[in-house]
Amino acid sequence: MGAFAQRPPRVFLSAGEASGDLHGAGFVRALKELRPDVRVACLGGTMLRNAGAEVLADNKEIAVVGLTEVLRHAKDIFNAWKRIRNHIVRQRPDLIVLIDFPDFNFLLARLARRCGMKILYYVSPQVWAWRSGRVRTLKRVVDEMAVILPFEVDFYRRHGMAVRYVGHPLLDAVRNAPPRDEALTRYGAADGSLLIGLLPGSRQSEVRLVFPVLIEAARRLRERMPGLSFIVPAAPTLAPEPIRSALAEAKLPARVVSGDTYGVIRACDLIVTVSGTVTLEAALLDTPMIIVNRVSRLSYTLGRDLIRVRYVGLPNLIAGRGVVPELLQQEARADIVCERVLDFLRDPALPAAQRRAFAGIRERLGQPGVARRVATMALRMLEP
Fold first, then answer.
1. What's the predicted TM-score (pTM) here?
2. In 188-260, where does DSSP find H-type helix?
3. How far apart are CA 323 and CA 190, in angstroms?
4. CATH (domain of 350)
5. Do the Cβ atoms of 195 and 187 come closer than 8 Å?
6. 332 and 207 share a domain?
7. CA 325 to the chain's CA centroid
8. What is the pLDDT of residues 213-240, one digit of tens each?
9. How is the beta sheet containing 144-147 ordered, strand by strand?
10. CA separation (Å) from 158 to 162, 174, 284, 377?
11. CB-based contact 137:163 (threshold 8 Å)
């Protein structure tokens, strides 16, 4: 243990979003099982705190997407950055672990590199999808990449980076999901009516832009099919009360659930969701879905020419084809969402085709035990 003969190893982990909080928590638990004396400080949330990490900055403060949203929350982001920067400079962690969240984490990586620290990037930013020139920055400041999508390995190897495919951490996470019968007992309608999940995202900016569309689509669906039931699993980065208030204002009866997203998704016959990690979670839970996504007009205008992939949904990216419908920007309208949901509810062949594709996606994601594999990488990097 040479380097740590005088003190326990110190790690700083940066997880700026709800999915990073989930993956980071699994990593911290595995790391502490292998090295119980390790000390972990982080940018994170409730799950990382419960896993034993010291949360220096709460990711609720900075979980935004899009240029205009970042500008709106600039003060919160700067305050979080200042606390983290001071910790890095004064405490000198032995290893920095970054989880996705590229714009913030790239700044952090540059600081850590200037301070001579080792850097492990776990869960690659989607540089292969847009702004691919950022890979040059990664090559300059990151020691190793632990990637969770199979096609990412070739991308980073082409750029001369040290990379390992560890499998997808959701394979471990969804194992704790309740079986469908149990989920239906918790959340299913007493009369057995179809249950539709509305998932507006984990960031305030997503909720502001997407949730009104989902609510209006649900109101139209109830007019067309009065027996439908609706449920909203609130992400851990969001307070449930504003969600309940928006539903009440729209006079849409819908149950809001906190702390059991997997149980809710498992119980649903169909979910309508923003893009992001939750789409892959739903695929692994075998729940059919439709993706609806919007960003501000300025963010879309500035970003559209930088995108290099055909799809935004992870199931579609992994499958290499349009398994899940994507209603983006101008198509993210309540009337269009309503019609697509009705298509799925009226034609059993559509959800059945998705479920067949989901089985193929699961096979491509590797084996469980991801968090322990990444923790082993981290411990190796901690050695002199």
1. 0.79
2. 204-224, 240-249
3. 31
4. 3.40.50.2000
5. yes
6. yes
7. 19
8. 999 999 999 999 999 999 999 988 788 9
9. 54-58, 39-44, 10-15, 95-99, 118-122, 144-147, 163-165
10. 10, 32, 30, 21
11. no
